[in-house]
Every structure is written in structure tokens, then in C-alpha cells.
Design a protein that fits this description.
single chain, mainly beta, 2 helices, about 5% helix
């Protein structure tokens, strides 16, 4: 595989905490521009559970993870991260949507094995920015389908929280949207295409998702993410959580739809040496108007 040497400008860089705080503030201010909507809160709740939706949302996720494993002290480790994950749809005349979804991680605390039988905790850092660009729709039958590309950029400010690689690969999602709810699965595969050639990356992953409506615009809903590292040693390949959650969609007095959610993930499979044991995710998603229309 061809891997050009990265320019020095793309080398890992340390940044000041205040620069990262500015990033979060800018992301928060981007909610300005949300506007009144014509759909009911129930309809909005269902559409936000559909990955082919034409609604634009600014997802913010706060994740707390507890870890376990065979390494000494693994069960005493935890992490705290923030993930800004907007969904920007571009509706097409044929009824399909072109979807652009970056994922910007900010790590506040992350345990890293130090190689001598212990752990060090990394402070505030920017991780590698992920993204996907997909094309799809939900048919009259309720079947949803999308396909596209998924990638990762080496934007980390500390090499302990992200590989110095450009990663790229395909993605596909299928599911079903009915009045009783939404169910589906997303599958991706990423390989390293440039940057540091060590380690060699070949990771299949994805997400299964579901949302079942409850009264007053509540939903039982979750979307746990899983991965399978083809190049990891035996016992360290699969990371698979089971997830349950509750969400609530509401509309403010000024007509801005908001979605609040909390999920709990329990990892039934995780790397033997060191991996996540359980996770709590808090989500806040404003629905916004984009310049090209919702």
C-alpha cells in the first residue's frame, strides 16, 4: 500500500487548553440559526432516529467509560470525552439525501498503558476527526438504505489519543422505519491509506440502532458502536456493547426542536488486555436550519 510521508505541518502538535475550549465554544454557538418547524415533535423524534433524514442536527455527546482487562490496574481506569457530531443533509431532487457527518472528538481524560505495567492519564487533547459522506433514502415501504465512504484525519494533538494515519473505507446502512419504530445497522471498514504505516490498520466496525416510541415524545432508543480489529492479537479483536437508552424530543417556545438522550452500554466483548467495560452517553441535539434548506 502506498503511504506518502506526511509533511511536517501534519506532525502531532501539542495545543493549549484554551485553544480547545474555544473549539467547544464555537461548536456551541453554531446552534444559532435554529428556526421554527412545521412537523410535530413525534415526527421529529422519529426522523432524528433515521440516518437518511433530511433534518440537520448538531449532535453533542458526552461519554464516560470505565475500563477493565488483564493489565494491572486496568479495572481502575476511566475516560471522559466530548464528541461533536453534526449531521448535514443535502436533499436531492430524486428524493435521496447526500449526508455529510463529521465527528470531532475532544478528550478530557484518557488512560494509556505506559508499557511498564502501569497507566498514564492524558489531559485535554483533540483526537482524530472522523467523517462520513453517504447517499441514501427511506423508501415508501419503510426500508432505509444508504452507502458512502467513511474516513479519519490525523488531527490528534497527542499521539497517545490517535494514530498518525489517514484512514478511508466504505460504509453501508440498512434498516426499517415504521410507526412502531426504527431499527437498522451500519457497517464500515477502514484501512490506512497514508501517514504512519505502523500499525497497519484494517478495522471493520459500525453501529446498530433502534428507537421505539413512548408517550409524550419519549423513546426507548440506543445506537451502540462496535469494532473488529483484523490485525489485533487473538482475544483483542472484537469490541461489542449491548445498549439501552431513553430519549426525549421537545420544541422550545421559539420553535427550535431539541433532542435529549441518555444511553448505557455494557461491553459483552472487549480486548482481553485492556478495553471498555461499560459506558454512559449523554446526548443533546438541536435541529437547525441550513442555508440550502431542510
Amino acid at each position: 500500500m502506498f503511504r506518502p510521508r506526511m509533511a511536517s505541518a501534519l506532525a502531532v502538535r501539542k495545543v493549549r487548553k484554551r485553544d480547545l475550549i474555544v473549539l467547544v465554544i464555537v461548536a456551541g454557538l453554531s446552534v444559532v440559526g435554529a428556526v421554527a418547524q412545521e412537523k410535530s415533535a413525534e415526527e421529529i423524534a422519529q426522523e432524528l432516529s433515521n440516518p437518511t433524514s433530511a433534518l440537520a442536527g448538531l449532535g453533542s455527546n458526552l461519554d464516560f467509560r470505565a475500563f477493565d482487562g488483564n493489565l494491572p490496574g486496568a479495572g481502575n481506569q476511566n475516560s471522559f470525552t466530548y464528541l461533536f457530531q453534526p449531521s448535514l443533509p443535502f436533499p436531492q431532487k430524486n428524493g435521496y439525501n447526500l449526508l455529510v457527518r463529521p465527528a470531532i472528538p475532544l478528550i478530557f481524560q484518557a488512560p494509556v498503558p505506559d508499557g511498564v505495567g502501569g497507566f498514564r492519564n492524558e489531559g485535554v487533547a483533540l483526537g482524530n476527526i472522523g467523517y462520513d459522506v453517504a447517499y441514501g433514502t427511506t423508501y415508501d415501504s419503510g426500508v432505509l438504505f444508504l452507502f458512502g465512504v467513511v474516513g479519519e484525519l490525523p488531527t490528534n494533538t497527542d499521539s497517545d489519543v490517535g494514530a498518525d494515519q489517514w484512514r478511508l473505507g466504505p460504509e453501508v446502512a440498512v434498516g426499517l422505519v415504521k410507526k412502531w419504530g426504527v431499527v437498522g445497522a451500519l457497517i464500515t471498514h477502514k484501512v490506512d491509506v497514508a501517514g504512519d504505516s505502523t500499525p497497519d490498520t484494517s478495522i471493520t466496525g459500525g453501529q446498530y440502532f433502534y428507537a421505539f416510541p413512548l408517550p409524550k415524545t419519549f423513546q426507548i432508543a440506543a445506537g451502540p458502536s462496535w469494532s473488529y480489529d483484523h490485525n489485533a492479537s487473538s482475544g483483542n479483536k472484537l469490541t461489542l456493547p449491548l445498549g439501552i437508552g431513553l430519549s426525549k424530543t421537545t420544541v422550545t417556545a421559539k420553535g427550535m426542536p431539541l433532542k435529549f438522550a441518555v444511553q448505557y452500554w455494557h461491553y459483552v466483548e472487549s480486548p482481553d488486555a485492556f478495553g471498555p467495560d461499560w459506558q454512559i452517553r449523554f446526548n443533546f441535539t438541536p435541529v437547525i436550519k441550513v442555508p440550502w434548506g431542510n
